[in-house]
Amino acid sequence: MSDYKGILVVGEIYDGKIRPVTFQLVSKARELADTLNTTLSVVLLGHNIGDMAREPIYYGADKVYVMDDQIFEPYVAEVYSRALTKFIGNLKPEIVLIPATHTGREYGPRISAALETGMTADCTDLVIKNGRFVQVRPAYGGNIMGEIITPNHRPQISTVRPNVFKTREPDRSRTGEIVQVKPEFDSMKVRTFIKEIVKTTVTGAKKLDEAKIIVSGGRGVGSKEGFEKLRELADLLGGAVGASRVAVDLGWMPKSAQVGQSGITVQPDLYIACGISGTIQHIVGMKDSKVIVAINKDPNAPIFNIADYGIVGDLHEVIPIFIEEIKKIKKK
Amino acid sequence: MNILVLVKQVPDTSDVKFDERGVMIREGVQSILNVFDQFALEEALRLRQKYGGEVSVMTLAPEQAKTAVQKCLALGADKAYHISDKAFGGSDTLATSYALSLAIRKAGNFDLIMAGNQATDGDTGHIGPQVAEWLGIPHVSYVEQVLSIENGRATVKSILEDGYRIVDVELPALFACLPPTNFEYTNPSMSGIIKAKSKPYTWWKADDIDGDKSKFGLNGSPTRVLKMYPPPKRSRGTVFTGDYHDAVKKIIEALMEKKVIE
Ligand SMILES: Cc1cc2nc3c(=O)[nH]c(=O)nc-3n(C[C@H](O)[C@H](O)[C@H](O)COP(=O)(O)OP(=O)(O)OC[C@H]3O[C@@H](n4cnc5c(N)ncnc54)[C@H](O)[C@@H]3O)c2cc1C
Ligand SMILES: Nc1ncnc2c1ncn2[C@@H]1O[C@H](COP(=O)(O)O)[C@@H](O)[C@H]1O
Known about the structure:
Number of helices of chain A: 8
Bound molecules: flavin-adenine dinucleotide, adenosine monophosphate
Number of strands of chain B: 15
Strand order of the largest sheet of chain B: 11-10-9-12-8-1-6-7-13
CATH topology of the largest domain in chain A: Rossmann fold
Oligomer: heterodimer
CATH architecture of chain B: 3-Layer(aba) Sandwich
Helix content of chain B: 25-40%
């Protein structure tokens, strides 16, 4: 076990860019590495990565391993998990952090099975207690938190959802080592083939899981057109638009906007819930937002029990006032 | 087409409660079939109708999970495998997926294995990908629909955060399934419930599956739960009921003070 040293963050390249969650993980891992007095590496898989490989260094990485190969484009789980299993098996890090994105949650668990080691999903905090790596995660729909350790197996693998950790200010003068690695595979046969990738998010719209501010709407918004006002407010605040499941079911918003148990988990600085009642399935997806504002015409709506600020009223009147007031401030 | 669906019974998370020590209060909590698994099963039954063959279900769980398995049979699954033994107690996802993969090998040759994308209790989403790894077969997660099966390959739609992918995979493969938002779950019919009682139901103990017993249960689990505790509670904040203009101004001021908006 003592052969295993250092922390490794698996970086993700998506649409030709390093995903922000990578930098969030690197920022957190830097703290952990300093506490453990060890090194922090990042591994990037992709094709034509080029200068992008420097970026993790600005956020705290000591070393970036680059596996640049055509085989990684487009992403498929079996290729990523095989290449990473080999790489991690050789590198022997003591801790591996993987983004809990749809892709990370797909290839990640395969690595833990292949290496026969422990893995903890969707961690909301990672701490060192008495020299031990403690992984904190919710379970049972967010009703309980658990602290998980991996005492006798290495590496200890965790996945972490986007926006759980904050990104440090990048330091562009920071230097580090970039190492090109030739990917190795036990078997070259690829059985998965991507036929098509379709994007359904509105072009130009911010990604929900990367937004610091989310304006979200439910049944109370009343129509597809009603969401345009929410988008106006979101654009003004530099945020994204989310939705409850009902709003998605009714076809007012795409599935990719759904927040909650069967949608995505978000943790923005500000979550404005408009015409959302606040059922448990929705709340588990957004309750860790820093500040929650709720607008609902029903004073007894459960969303008010978790909101920091609430307005009992008609959102169709309140939102335009919000827009107006924010515009006033922007002018100043 | 031989399809296996992995299913799990879970407590209904919309009414689970924990005491202050983090121990689940079991009284009054309903156990249900994980909804993601019911979706996977209904997708499997749809494929059976289209391509023929057989649908089996498998669970690794204490005896009482039989109710959830029985529901699968009532919905139309042809037979069930229930792996149950004290030796599996305390299994984490690695130990569970290992035992399941052994049981799957023993149960026969499946063209397709379907699982839920995640179970609503642990919510790890590990089991599907890990089982696929132990079996050495490809898998796709976040599968919303199996579009077609032809010449030993399947085409599926898999959901991404910002869209979806159409993926073509060689069989045998495993799909971890996520219901579309407007999915309407079927309720078992009376005749389905009656028929379920006479369908083949196989019980296996740890000794019935071949494998490395040291990898079973708590001993075979690399992870340990150190402690459980209730999440920090959010409390009710300030709720404005009067003039909208006034309320909006006060909220914006507070948000600026907290630096969540600039
Ligand atoms: C397995 C499972 C998974 C689920 N997953 C999710 C999930 O991921 N995400 C999710 O969101 N839900 C999920 N749900 C559904 C969830 O249970 C609720 O049905 C849903 O969240 C309710 O959405 P809503 O709040 O928009 O609608 P409603 O509950 O109908 O609430 C609408 C609210 O709008 C208010 N309102 C109406 N008009 C106005 C107005 N003009 N101004 C102000 N307020 C107004 C009403 O007072 C009401 O409180 C899931 C359910 C199940 C069973
Ligand atoms: N004990 C089990 N027995 C059978 N299938 C399981 C078991 N645990 C999990 N699964 C399957 O794996 C999926 C993901 O579960 P999890 O990894 O626990 O979130 C579930 O939806 C089931 O299809």
